[in-house]
Amino acid sequence: MSALKGASKFKHLPRVASGPLKCPFEGTSLLTSSQFNKGSAFPKEERTAFKLHGLLPPNIQTLDEQVQRAYQQYTSCDNDLAKNTFMASMKAQNEVLYYKLLQTHLKEMFSVIYTPTEGDAIQNYSRLFRKPEGCFLNIRDQDSIEECLSAFGTAEDVDYIVVSDGEEILGIGDQGVGAVLISVAKLVITTLCAGIHPSRQLPVVLDCGTNNEELLNDELYLGLREHRVRGKEYDDFVERFVQIARKRFPNAYIHFEDFGLQNARRILDKYQSQIPCFNDDIQGTGCVTLAAMLAALHVSDVKIDDVRVVVFGSGTAGTGIADQIADTIVTQTNKSKEEASKQIWCIDKPGLLLKSYGDKLTPAQFSFARNDNEWPSDQKHDLHSVIHQVKPHVLIGTSTKPKAFTEDIVREMAKHVDRPIIFPLSNPTRLHEAQPSDLYEWTDGKALVATGSPFPPVEYGGKKYDIAECNNSTCFPGIGLGAVLSRSRLVSKKMLVAAVEALKAKSPALEDPNRPLLPDVEDVREVSVDIAAGVIQCAVNEGLAQEKDIPTDDAELREWIRAQMWDAVYRPLAKEYDEKSTLCKKKESHASLDSHRCGTTNSEK
């Protein structure tokens, strides 16, 4: 089936972003609406119909010409933070142009609108603030949660919510109310990479205070000026948000982002059996790392039944990766979760995790802690000793301990396996456990490498090796797309394994072992289609999908998915005369809301 026929066949679906777009605005109101604004690209007939004559220069431009001009403005910015601010301003003015510019220069701009530059923007949120974006909920005003969320539409208006409490942001720690920008950034990625409709998203920050003294002492800080609330009051706040969000937007998928170590896992554990939800730091990181690992196991001809894995750094990301590996072993073998967990050795600050550490272990760590009698009493618990004793096929770093994978450790690993699989994943780049160039040198070019940040290609032994980046953006948008389109009641472990298998199948290393273990971010929209298809098929098979008439034919399913993905193109505008238009009322209402409670979905910092 051609894409054109597929789009025509499915044009009745409510999320199909083609054909005329009903618009209630005209004149200056239209030019200030980022969803509808076309700027200099408004055609003559729309300039007449929407009373734009005299408000725009006379020359009518194409979207491509606008992109060219916008890119010149972008490149004139002095530094990456200035570029980030420029892009945020553009997003507030013209949504289509913003995303088209990003799509055109995705590889170059990705690190500016996401990590690491978005971390700088978050740290400077209160100083760069111009206009609110998203929904601001604070723990001292819980009675207003329903009112705040109601400003963003009715039951059918929101598909995807990203919510953060800002305690552990992008490796830079507690950023309080600035966390709204990580919710915004994640949603930008879902649109870029999976076509989630930008008008059907909701970024949320749960302001519970902050333990960042620098913010507390900053007179410009915009969040609650008090230390973080813990305990029952915190749990009640999260519960109240989840229940009201589900009541207001019953079809919405909730993505938890950058919660603290003590909260992330237990919040996910509480809600994943109740609602369709996802934690990217735990599950997204686990999925993308596992996909890279499975591709590497294929190259190195090691079966998952036999794989031995060492995870160095057992926080939210490390235990999330361990969980995904264990779940996949269970799914693909006849082993129990307990048996699968015994193929994984987790190390944290005290060394190898042992059951005798008791209360010092988090719940997520406990399931991977070894019985003390499994480890020789005369054997040390440090990384080198564990490598020597375990002889792992895979070494994964999520420790934020730079250069932890020393030459001695890597060479010790290479003594025992033919193709050492080594993933230094800590972000940002300065916190990486090893440099890819060193890993190739210390293993005589045999290492299979993936990193947590982008690295340039490595030349060794006359060969050039492109370095795979374990970028969650190749995975979590497709999972969300599949969950949204299928209206799955939950996100099951099997659905995540299906996503991993779909991502692994796109690994360039499966065709050439010298190529990267994961696809490039520039290919991610088609990767997201494959991931969404796998997730949807699994949801249907498990009886979790609630959407009707999901195609059963694989090719038709992919066309059904593509037809519902938003793309950055200008659609013809049609007059909207219905004063009760939910979307339009939602857009208008945002501007008047107190920025400490609710904000617009049009703008940013």
Automatic annotation (TrEMBL):
GO CC field = cytosol; mitochondrion
Record-listed (S)-malate binding positions: 427, 471
One GO biological process term is: malate metabolic process
Q: Which InterPro entries match?
A: Aminoacid_DH-like_N_sf (IPR046346), Malic_enzyme_CS (IPR015884), Malic_N_dom (IPR012301), Malic_N_dom_sf (IPR037062), Malic_NAD-bd (IPR012302), Malic_OxRdtase (IPR001891), NAD(P)-bd_dom_sf (IPR036291)
Q: From the UniProt entry, list the residue stretches annotated as the region Disordered.
A: 584-605
Keywords for this entry? Metal-binding, NAD, Oxidoreductase
Where along the chain is the active site annotated? 114, 186
Annotated a divalent metal cation binding sites: 257-258, 281
Co-factor requirement: Mg(2+); Mn(2+)
- Asked if the keyword Oxidoreductase belongs to this entry, the reply reads yes
Which ranges carry the Malic enzyme NAD-binding domain? 282-540
Does the keyword field hold Aminoacyl-tRNA synthetase? no
Top-level taxon: Eukaryota
Sequence ranges assigned to domain Malic enzyme N-terminal in this UniProt record: 91-272
Question: Into which family does the record put it?
Answer: Belongs to the malic enzymes family.
What is the protein named? Malic enzyme
Q: Which organism is it from?
A: Penicillium subrubescens
